[in-house]
Amino acid sequence: MKIVPFKKMKSFKKILLGLMLLLGIQSCYYDVEEQLYPSTGCNLSGVTLSGKVKPIIQSRCYSCHSQQNSGAYGGNINVETYANLKAEVDNGKFLKSIKHESGVSPMPKGNTALIDACEIKIIEEWINLGAPND
Prior knowledge:
mainly alpha; 7 helices
């Protein structure tokens, strides 16, 4: 077994410490969310009721909140007609319920992943535009 002189050991410790500092400094950087998680392509341009919002509502809400099903499954809330949907939008409950905010019953019940974040953004954009009937 070879014995390493003390001076060489001290030198080795300095090199090791230097490498650790270099690696530590290099690993510290500012993460930019947009670069780490690029946009999934949620297109909010040209949002209309008939073009983007209605298809989401038909596929995600009508199973419980249509004229046919609202009595049995949807708490008598029917969003099949524009007037009924607009009433739910105007009272603030519609957006709050799909965003699962407090003070309203979260929708859809028992299935939080049914309406994805992009679909919620599309609906929110339509509401921000005044929820027009087109």
